[in-house]
Amino acid sequence: MVSFYDPDEGRKKKRGDREAALKRREKRREWAANLEGEHAIAAAKEAALKQLDRQDRSRGELVSKLKERGFASEAIEAAIDRLEEAGLVDDERYAKMLVRTRFNERGLVGRALVEQLRKKQIPSAIIDVALKEVEHISLEESAREIATRRARATIGLEKQKQVRRLTSMLARKGYPMSVCYSVVNEVLQELDEDE
C-alpha cells in the first residue's frame, strides 16, 4: 500500500518538534542557571568547546552563546579566560584570519571588513590591528581584478547601467567611491576597445 503525504500531519509534527526543542532548551537554561562554582565553570567551558569544535569564534561570540544558554556571567568569564590561556580563543588571530579570508575569497576591503569584524563582536583595537593584514594591497589593483571579472556579465547593457552595477558592487565590497568610479571607467573602456 502506498502512503501519501498529508500536509496537515506534517505541520503538526513540525510544530511538535519545535515545541519539544524549546522545552529542551529551557530545561538546559534552568540546569545551567542552577550550577555553581567549579561545576558551572566546567559546564560553561564544555559548552564553549562544543562551539569551538564547529568553528573558530571570538570571545564576544562565545559570551553571547553561553549567556543564551543560561550560564552565569562569572562562570562564562572564568571559562573563557581558561580557554584564552590555553590558546583556544584568540581574538587577534581570529580577526586576522577573517580579514585574510574575506579579502581573498570575496574581495572585501575597508568598511566591509570592519562591518564583518563588528558582527563577530571583535573589539575596535583588534580590528585596527587585523586590518593591517591587507594594508599593503593596492585597492586599485584588486578593484580592477574584480571589476574585470564582473564586467563580462554586463556586456549588452546600457553604459549607465554597467557603471551603476559595477560601482555599487565594488562599493558593497568596501572600496572608496573614487576608486570605484575610476576603475569601472577604465575597465569599461578596455571592454569597449576589445569589442
Automatic annotation (TrEMBL):
Gene from which this protein is expressed: recX
Cell location: Cytoplasm
The name this protein goes by in its record: Regulatory protein RecX
Instruction: List residues of the RecX first three-helical domain.
Output: 44-83
Task: Cite the Gene3D superfamilies for this sequence.
Answer: Winged helix-like DNA-binding domain superfamily/Winged helix DNA-binding domain (1.10.10.10)
Report the residue ranges that make up the RecX third three-helical domain in this protein: 141-184
Pfam families recorded: RecX_HTH1, RecX_HTH2, RecX_HTH3
Query: What is stated as this protein's family in its record?
Result: Belongs to the RecX family.
PANTHER family in the record, alphabetically?
A: REGULATORY PROTEIN RECX FAMILY PROTEIN (PTHR33602:SF1)
For this record, an example GO cellular component is: cytoplasm
InterPro entries in UniProt:
RecX_HTH_1st (IPR053926), RecX_HTH_2nd (IPR053924), RecX_HTH_3rd (IPR053925), Regulatory_RecX (IPR003783), WH-like_DNA-bd_sf (IPR036388)
Query: What sections of the protein cross the membrane?
Result: none
- Give the keywords, sorted: Cytoplasm
Q: Which superkingdom is the protein from?
A: Bacteria
**GO-annotated biological processes:** regulation of DNA repair
Asked whether the UniProt record includes Cytoplasm among its keywords, one would answer yes
Coiled-coil intervals in this record? none
| Functional note | Modulates RecA activity.
Domain RecX second three-helical residues, every copy: 90-131
Basic and acidic residues bias located where?
Answer: 8-21
Q: Signal peptide location in the record?
A: none
Keyword Repeat present in the record's keywords: the answer is no
Q: Where is this region: Disordered?
A: 1-21
